[in-house]
Amino acid sequence: MAAGGQPPNWKGLFEWSMQHHDGTMPSTFEGRVLTEADRKWFTEAMAYYMKDVVERMREIKGGLDKPDDSEGAVEEKEKLLDELVEIVENIDHARDLTKIGGLQTLLALLQNPHPSLRSRAAEVAATCVQSNPPVQDWFMQGGALPKLLELYEDRDPTCRTKALLALSCLLRHNAAGLDAFRQGGGFTQLVAALEDEEPRVQRKALQLMGHLLQERLGDAAEACRLGLPHALCNLVDHDQNEMRHAALEVANQLAKDPATLKLLKEETALKDHLRHAEATFRSSDVEDLDAVKEEVELCQHLLDVLSQPPPAAAAAAVSEPGSGIGDRYWRQARGLAGDIASPRRAAGMQVALVPNGEGGNGQASAGNVAA
């Protein structure tokens, strides 16, 4: 029996053993007399790994619940939260944390005056609920959604980013959560976050919007009514590839539904921004064009759909990017690159994609670039 009359933590011992030997190589153990230092190291290692994880979470919770917010206490709480987020990566431990009252501790920390604690608490919450339906339900029932929506508008950009991360994990494959999010004004805040001054927040908001529309396209009309097409205008030609790609994906999702496609068409500035993105692609080097292949497809597909009359546009909107005009341009550009024999010359070429209706027939052309 372990100390205190408790049975040994065999699971902890097993995990320790697996970390120190994976069975893929022969043992290098040689019998020898252990020194006092060896014995001390082994005893401390066994004590650490055989410690009850739930008991450790209780200790962490107790430390986080202390009302002391002095500088030293805040630093200690930061360390405790960093440790806790690693523990709850195990879904069983995430459930145990909820059972011992950890949710209320996290909710209180989401309103702590120190942003470093608010953001860390949101990250722990995100880790707990990720791909963990029972914990998602418990967090919803415990009032996590309203608190995260409040943090969503925090003055600190890291807190806003972590709030969006936690919301994304909480709402994934969670129909009841999506309903509560909509009823709580979540889409209003999410559309506003797309115009946040902090790129990290914009990127997380785009990812969450794309996920929500993928889960339930019926919410697209509500998002459009709240100004989603306008918010996308400055993002579809953003100078950051990841941001631009996510915005183009969201816009293409909206184009799949005739009702939201109509709303996209009403945002006349959107086509101007798409043409600007298209011009950027057209001026890309051959090597760069390969890296943005999917973006070329998304941009050209969307322009094609927005330019068609209503009946044809509705039919075209349900087709997927990749088999249409953007993919055709990309293949033509890559074919051109293959015809260039000299690598030195290829490095000095630009690919010009000439779309239909602009003095060309969708052909690719090339020209020398001044050094």
From TrEMBL:
It comes from the Eukaryota. Keywords: Repeat. Transmembrane segments: none annotated. One of its GO terms (cellular component) is endoplasmic reticulum. InterPro entries: ARM-like (IPR011989), ARM-type_fold (IPR016024), Hsp70_NEF-Inhibitors (IPR050693), Nucleotide_exch_fac_Fes1 (IPR013918). Residues 11-97 form the Nucleotide exchange factor Fes1 domain. One of its GO terms (molecular function) is adenyl-nucleotide exchange factor activity. The keyword Iron does not apply. This is Nucleotide exchange factor Fes1 domain-containing protein. It comes from [Myrmecia] bisecta.
